[in-house]
Amino acid sequence: MERLSDWYDHPEYYEAIFGTDTEREMDFLLEVSRRYGTGGKQLLEPACGAGRFVAEAARRGYQIVGYDISEKMLAHARRRLTPAQRRRVRLHQARMEEFYQSELEGKVDLAFNLVSTFRYLDSEKAALAHLEGTRRLLNPEGVYVLGFHLTDYEREKAEHERWVERLGKDTVVCNTHEGVPDPRLRRSAMRNRLRITGPGKDLLIETHWYFRTYDLAQTRRLFRRAGLQVLAVYDFDYQVDAPRKRGEIRLDSIFVLQPVKNKNPSPSGRGTG
Ligand SMILES: C[S@@+](CC[C@H](N)C(=O)[O-])C[C@H]1O[C@@H](n2cnc3c(N)ncnc32)[C@H](O)[C@@H]1O
């Protein structure tokens, strides 16, 4: 068995697992944008990875800017685009805590970031920088749809998820393991194993990283600091007609965020949120 150590160096296997529901997720995102935001054509995907959403948005006629830290993921994203899609897509290598483009300021109708990617930001400062930066790019009536798994600090056991998918003649088995959260360091140790088997192939890609942890109160405090209000919360089942009821607490959460309306603009004319 061959062993490798970073699943984002192997976009095709990453997407074999995460790319199976892209059309349904895109339907959900666009409908959320119509209901809570402007429904407009300018999209932004922070940490766009191998570009499954970028390609799908462009296929549907939307303009989209995507960025990611991983050049290998971006290369896969570029390769998959048809010439017609390419005209609607801008891709950049950038970090979530730093990305900014003056020409996008105030223009983004819908930004989105699902599957807990936000939790890669490993400090409050980095998370705040990302949210404030994204807020500045949003149209004041636009929305940022941010999906991530909240942490139950009472949990004493590791969590485990397993998926199996086919990729051509190969079978991809994905095992993700989240360790017990450390409430002081605000992080959980993560491990992902992708085992790929097929004709002449036996590969194990094992990736280790930390995810930052958030309970609901920590999340809401951060959003407030970033000048973002929560318009609705959904589960990971992407049912646009079934937003979570007030007071209902579940861990898998998709927040629909919008810039807080600035009632007292600062002298420079730029709000502080
Ligand atoms: C779980 S994947 C999600 C990819 C894509 N959004 C999707 O849904 O398929 C997480 C992505 O985040 C990227 N990433 C991790 N930390 C990042 C950071 N600080 N800034 C930008 N991208 C980051 C990784 O390179 C990877 O492509």
TrEMBL record:
Keywords: Methyltransferase, Transferase. Pfam families: Methyltransf_25. It comes from the Bacteria. One of its GO terms (biological process) is methylation. InterPro entries: Methyltransf_25, SAM-dependent_MTases_sf. Residues 44-142 form the Methyltransferase domain. This is Class I SAM-dependent methyltransferase.
